[in-house]
Amino acid sequence: MPTNSNRTCLARLPGGELKELSAREHDTIDSLRKKPDHVVWLDIASPTADDLKLLHDEFSVHPLALEDIEKRRQRPKLDTYAEQQIIVTYEVLEPSEPDQHFELGELHLFAGPGYVVSVRWHGSPAIEEVEGRFRDRPDAVARTPGSLVYAILDAAVDGYFPLLDRLTDKIEDLEERILAGGRSNDTLRIILGLKRKLLELRRHLSPQRDVANAVLRRDLPLVDDTSAPYFQDLYDHTIRVLDQLDLQRDLLASALEANLSVTSNNLNAIMKRLTAFTVILMVPTLIAGVYGMNFHFMPELSWPLGYPLALGVMLLAMVGSALFFRARDWF
Question: What is the pLDDT of residues 176-185, one digit of tens each?
Answer without folding.
Answer: 888 777 566 6
